[in-house]
Amino acid sequence: MNLGNELKKIIAPDRVLTRPIDLIAYASDASVYRLIPKAVVQPSTVQEIRELFALSSRARVPVTFRAAGTSLSGQAVTDGILVDISKYWRRISVDDDGSRVRLQPGTIGGVVNNILRPYGAKLGPDPASINACMMGGILANNASGMCCGVSQNSYHTLESLTFVLPNGNVTDTAAAAAAESFRTANPDIAQGLQGLRRQITDNGRLSERIRDKYRRKNTTGYSLNAFLDYSESVDIMRHLLIGSEGTLGYIAEAVMRTVPDLPLKYTGLLFFPDIQAAGSAIVPLRNSGAAALELMDRAALRSVADQSGALAEMKDLPDSAAAILVEYQCDAIDDLQSFKACAAGVFKDLSLVHPPDFTEEPKQQAALWQIRKGLFPSVGAVRELGTSVIIEDVVFPVERLDSAVTDLQALFEKHGYAKAIIFGHARDGNIHFVITQSFHEPAAVNQYDMFIRDVVSLVVDKYDGAIKAEHGTGRNMAPFVETEWGADAYAIMKSLKSLIDPDNLLNPDVIVNSDPNAHIKNLKSLPTVDPESDTCIECGFCEPKCPSRDLTLTPRQRIVVRREIARLRAGNGDDARLRSLMDDYAYDGVETCAADGLCATACPVRIDTGLLVKRLRKEAISDAAQRRAVRIAGRLGLWERLARAGLRLGHLTNRFLGARGVNAGLKLLGAVTGTRLPQWSEAMPTAAPGRIPSTSYEGAAAVYFPSCVARVMGKLPGEAAAQPLADTLVTLGERAGKPLWIPPACAGHCCGVPFSSKGYRAAYEQTVNDMIAALWEWSDSGRMPVVIDTSPCTYTLNSCRDDLTPANQKLHDALEITDSVAFVHDHLLGSLQVTSVDADVVLHPVCSLVKMDLTEKLLAVAKRCARTATIPIHAGCCGFAGDRGLLFPELTRSATKAEAEEVRSCSYGGYYSSSRTCELGMTIATGETYQSILYLVERATRDDREK
Question: For 834-940, CATH number?
Answer without folding.
Answer: 3.40.50
